[in-house]
C-alpha cells in the first residue's frame, strides 16, 4: 500500500536495562492471560528477538519430538486451546509455520506471545514467516489497524513488521520433513538454493522467496499460475521430484484453510495444516458432548494443518496440529473452537478463497 503516512520512519533504539529471564517470565505470564505489553516493552521484545532470529538459517534445523502448527491469524483463544491440547511450551517443542496476524481480533497478543516464547525458549520453539508477516499484507487484513486501535499509533506495527524480515523461511525436521508456509518454487531445486537467499527484506512480489510463502499444491501436474496473484501452483510430479532430490519424506505446509484441520495431498507427499478455528467470517459443527476435546489420527506422509478453528468466525472448520515423535511417526490432533462469549455462531460451510 502507498498510504503509509501514519507510519513512523526510523525509530530510535530504546535505552533500557537488559531483558532478563525474570522480565521475560513476567511478560509471558501476562500474555498468556491476553494482556498486551506496553509499547516500550514491545520494542525491547523485538530488539531482543532480532538478535535471536538473525542467527537462524533460511532452512532452520529442528529436532524431534516436535509439534507442527499451521495458521493462527490472531485467534488467541485457539492458540491457548492448542497449548492445552499439545502441551505448554517449553514442555512441548513447537514449530509454527507462519500467519500469526491479521483477520482475528487478537493479532497483537498472539504474535507478542509467540515472540516472547521464542526469546525465552529459543531451542524449544521455531517460528517461520508466513505471507501475512508482511508490511503490505498487514495494512490490508487488520494487523496495522489493530495496532493503531490498541496503541494509538503505528510504532508497534513497525517494530513487528521490521522483525518479520528476520523470521526463517523454512525448517527441516531431522533432515526429512520440510516445513514452510506456502509451497515450492520453479526457481528452487535444492535446499541449498533456499539457504542462499537473502531473507532480510519485505516479502517480494515475485521470485523464490515470494513463492515459498505463497505457492499451493494442485491436482494438475507441473507449474501453474496461482489464482492468488503471487506464487505458483505445483503438481504431484513437482513435489515428488523435490522430495526425492532432497532426501525428504514429506512437505508440511499451511497457508490454506482445510475444513478438518489437516489434509493430505499429492499421494501423501504434501500435508496442509490449519490450526485456527475462529476468524470473524465462518463456523463448523460442534463435537459430541460425549467425545473428547480432540481427535487423534494416525500418521501420514503429507498433510496440511490449519491451526485456526472456525476460521474468521464463520467458516466452521476444525483446527489441527501434527505431533512428530522421536521415531518420526506423526499423529494429528484435531480440535474445535473454544467458547467465546458474544461472538457469532454460524452454520458450517465451505469458505471462499482466502489470501
Automatic annotation (TrEMBL):
Its EC number is 3.1.3.16. InterPro entries: Calcineurin-like_PHP, Metallo-depent_PP-like, PPA2-like, Ser/Thr-sp_prot-phosphatase. The keyword Glycosyltransferase does not apply. It catalyses: O-phospho-L-threonyl-[protein] + H2O = L-threonyl-[protein] + phosphate. This is Serine/threonine-protein phosphatase. SMART domains: PP2Ac (SM00156). PANTHER family: SERINE/THREONINE-PROTEIN PHOSPHATASE PP2A-RELATED (PTHR45619). Residues 128-133 form the Serine/threonine specific protein phosphatases domain. Belongs to the PPP phosphatase family. One of its GO terms (molecular function) is metal ion binding.
Amino acid at each position: 500500500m502507498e498510504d503509509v503516512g501514519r507510519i513512523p520512519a526510523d525509530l530510535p533504539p530504546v535505552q533500557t536495562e537488559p531483558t532478563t529471564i525474570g522480565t521475560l517470565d513476567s511478560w509471558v505470564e501476562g500474555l498468556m492471560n491476553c494482556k498486551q505489553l506496553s509499547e516500550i516493552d514491545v520494542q525491547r521484545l523485538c530488539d531482543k528477538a532480532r538478535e535471536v532470529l538473525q542467527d537462524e538459517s533460511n532452512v532452520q534445523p529442528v529436532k524431534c519430538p516436535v509439534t507442527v502448527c499451521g495458521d493462527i491469524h490472531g485467534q488467541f483463544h485457539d492458540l491457548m486451546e492448542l497449548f492445552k491440547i499439545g502441551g505448554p511450551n517449553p514442555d512441548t517443542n513447537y514449530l509454527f509455520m507462519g500467519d500469526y496476524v491479521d483477520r482475528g481480533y487478537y493479532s497483537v497478543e498472539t504474535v507478542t506471545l509467540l515472540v516472547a516464547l521464542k526469546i525465552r525458549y529459543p531451542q524449544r520453539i521455531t517460528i517461520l514467516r508466513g505471507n501475512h508477516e508482511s508490511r503490505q499484507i498487514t495494512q490490508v487484513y487488520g494487523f496495522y489497524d489493530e495496532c493503531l486501535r490498541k496503541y494509538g499509533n503505528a510504532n508497534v506495527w513497525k517494530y513487528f513488521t521490521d522483525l518479520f524480515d528476520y523470521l526463517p523461511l523454512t525448517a527441516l525436521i531431522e533432515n526429512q520433513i520440510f516445513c514452510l508456509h506456502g509451497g515450492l518454487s520453479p526457481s528452487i531445486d535444492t535446499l541449498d538454493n533456499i539457504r542462499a537467499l537473502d531473507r532480510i527484506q519485505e516479502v517480494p512480489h515475485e521470485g523464490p522467496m515470494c513463492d515459498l510463502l505463497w505457492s499451493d499444491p494442485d491436482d494438475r501436474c507441473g507449474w501453474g499460475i496461482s489464482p492468488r496473484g503471487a506464487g505458483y501452483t505445483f503438481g504431484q510430479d513437482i513435489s515428488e521430484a523435490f522430495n526425492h532430490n532432497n532426501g525428504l519424506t514429506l512437505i508440511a505446509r499451511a497457508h490454506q484453510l482445510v475444513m478438518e484441520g489437516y489434509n493430505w495431498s499429492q499421494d501423501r507427499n504434501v500435508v496442509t495444516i490449519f490450526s485456527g478455528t475462529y476468524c470473524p467470517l465462518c463456523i463448523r459443527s460442534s463435537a459430541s458432548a460425549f467425545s473428547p476435546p480432540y481427535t487423534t489420527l494416525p500418521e501420514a506422509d503429507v498433510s496440511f494443518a490449519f491451526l485456526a478453528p472456525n476460521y474468521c468466525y464463520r467458516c466452521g472448520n476444525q483446527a489441527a496440529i501434527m505431533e512428530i515423535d522421536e521415531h518420526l511417526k506423526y499423529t494429528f490432533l484435531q480440535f474445535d473452537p473454544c467458547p467465546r462469549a458474544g461472538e457469532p455462531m454460524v452454520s458450517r460451510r465451505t469458505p471462499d478463497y482466502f489470501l
